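Key result, reporting period 2: structure in, sequence out.
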């Protein structure tokens, strides 16, 4: 018999149930309980530093691949929770092993899946293993929240304006306790204060971004502050000096405030805990009523009154995120020939419905940042569409022939008008799908799957029609229904935009000509002149 020994430990400590000790105990068990077994028949799989909450571990994945290939007949582990602490994962694993005829042996709990009682006890033990994991996780969370109430910085990247500093504290029994606290960075401290002052004066995130850019104030990365980054800074209580106004603000919103107005003083800042839910993968923001607000051990940078005023401005300006425009064909595709940045679509004032593509840098920071001229939107969209449409035509020939053949078979049916009507509807949908088949990729594969489904339905309809040979209008109908130009006119703006992205890699506007890079073999480039209304001189 070939044995697969699996060992795991979450943290490498060199003590206790190390992966080496687990492996040695499993080897001894096999040699004692399986006469004739040899160490040469044992393969070892070790995962060190991986949690048991899931089966997504490198050596465990290799183990399962080897079992699937028939390289093992018995899986041996030291303890049940070394394999998994999740009941669902464990149940699926046992079913998978049973289907492959692989035995499972756990030497500590002495489980054997070969008997009904052993299998039942195995499932019961896995339930308690999951309970233990969830209890440990809850205990860790509770301990972190208890520490949070003391105002400690619990780790992570310090916010702009601060650095993390380790402190040591001597306890009464002689032990030394280490902790972390925030200390203000002189240079970044003034940056934070300038951001709050600018927002209170301008009441606009875009205005603050432009103000910082003009003054040369950059983020830690050396780049301009982003709008989401500025919003997050303005909402962060870490910068706020504790005071009655802030205490009232959070109490009214149901947060767990761990201090009283009498405790405020000395310019201490705040720390907010439990702001995000880290139990899942995306870490969404928790509502304010679930926050824990504590007095920090660091210096606050903004007065409580100013911080509360900023929150009021942000809440009044909050609304649904603006959707991508539905009128500009080249949104996200055209770039500025001067600075290489993206060009954004913006409607002209006056309600005419016309729009222009404007360099993003110019739009945000003014014409002095980028001298590139604006691009008239409707003219550019029309020229690009006219240039790309003929290049999509050859890609539809296979569909054209398939549909023409289907319509030829159905052309002489007569008397089955409903089936013939459906065949024509299928033809029209094939036409639209053909226009979307720009190049290979996930979108094209999805479209091709829909095409195959339509073709299958067309064949079933042909069988129902009891088709006679010869269809006088077969070629005509096939050509008419696969007229790409006619079908393209029926596409919605999002469908047109998707087709353009399947065919074109990039557009670049140099002020006189629009250069269009296609996905043709060899990456050929060709230029299109843009004519029409002269572009405006400023956004």
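The corresponding designed sequence is given below.
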């Amino acid at each position: 018999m070939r044995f697969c020994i699996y060992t795991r430990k979450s943290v490498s400590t060199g003590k206790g149930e190390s992966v080496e000790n687990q492996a040695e105990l499993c080897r001894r068990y096999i040699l004692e309980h399986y006469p004739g077994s040899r160490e040469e028949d044992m393969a070892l799989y070790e995962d060190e530093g991986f949690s048991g909450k899931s089966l997504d571990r490198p050596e465990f994945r290799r183990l399962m691949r080897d079992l699937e290939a028939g390289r093992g007949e018995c899986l041996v582990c030291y303890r049940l929770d070394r394999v998994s602490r999740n009941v669902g994962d464990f149940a699926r694993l046992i079913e998978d092993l049973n289907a492959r005829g692989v035995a499972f042996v756990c030497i500590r709990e002495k489980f054997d899946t070969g008997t009904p009682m052993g299998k039942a006890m195995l499932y019961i033990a896995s339930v308690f293993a999951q309970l233990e994991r969830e209890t440990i996780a809850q205990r860790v969370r509770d301990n972190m929240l208890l520490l949070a109430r003391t105002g400690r910085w619990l780790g992570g990247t310090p916010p702009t304006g601060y650095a993390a500093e380790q402190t040591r504290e001597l306890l009464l029994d002689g032990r030394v306790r280490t902790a972390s606290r925030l200390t203000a960075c002189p240079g970044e401290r003034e940056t934070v204060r300038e951001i709050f002052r600018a927002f209170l004066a301008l009441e606009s995130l875009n205005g603050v971004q432009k103000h910082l850019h003009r003054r040369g104030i950059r983020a830690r990365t050396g780049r301009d502050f982003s709008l989401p980054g500025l919003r997050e800074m303005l909402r962060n209580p870490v910068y706020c000096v504790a005071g009655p106004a802030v205490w009232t603000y959070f109490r009214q919103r149901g947060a767990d405030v761990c201090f009283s107005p009498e405790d405020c003083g000395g310019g201490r800042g705040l720390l907010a805990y439990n702001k995000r839910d880290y139990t899942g993968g995306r870490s969404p923001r928790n509502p304010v009523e679930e926050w824990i607000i504590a007095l920090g051990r660091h210096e606050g940078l903004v007065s409580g009154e100013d911080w509360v005023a900023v929150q009021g401005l942000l809440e009044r300006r909050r609304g649904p995120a603006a959707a991508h425009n539905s009128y500009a064909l080249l949104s996200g595709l055209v770039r500025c020939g001067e600075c290489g940045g993206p060009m954004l679509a913006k409607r002209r004032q006056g309600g005419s419905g016309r729009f222009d593509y404007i360099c993003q840098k110019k739009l945000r920071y003014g014409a002095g940042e980028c001298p590139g001229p604006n691009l008239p939107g409707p003219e550019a969209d029309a020229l690009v569409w006219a240039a790309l449409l003929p290049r999509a035509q050859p890609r539809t020939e296979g569909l054209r022939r398939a549909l023409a053949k289907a319509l030829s078979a159905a052309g002489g049916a007569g008397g089955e008008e409903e089936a013939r009507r459906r065949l024509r509807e299928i033809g029209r949908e094939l036409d639209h799908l053909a226009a979307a088949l720009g190049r290979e990729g996930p979108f094209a594969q999805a479209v091709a799957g829909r095409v195959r489904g339509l073709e299958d339905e067309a064949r079933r309809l042909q069988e129902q029609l009891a088709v006679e040979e010869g269809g006088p209008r077969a070629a005509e109908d096939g050509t008419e229904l696969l007229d790409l130009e006619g079908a393209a006119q029926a596409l919605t703006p999002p469908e047109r935009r998707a087709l353009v992205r399947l065919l074109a890699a990039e557009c670049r506007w140099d002020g006189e000509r629009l250069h269009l890079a296609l996905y043709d073999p060899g990456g050929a480039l060709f230029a299109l002149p843009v004519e029409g209304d002269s572009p405006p001189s400023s956004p």
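The mean pLDDT is 76. The chain has 17 helices and 17 strands. This case is discussed further under Risks and Mitigation.
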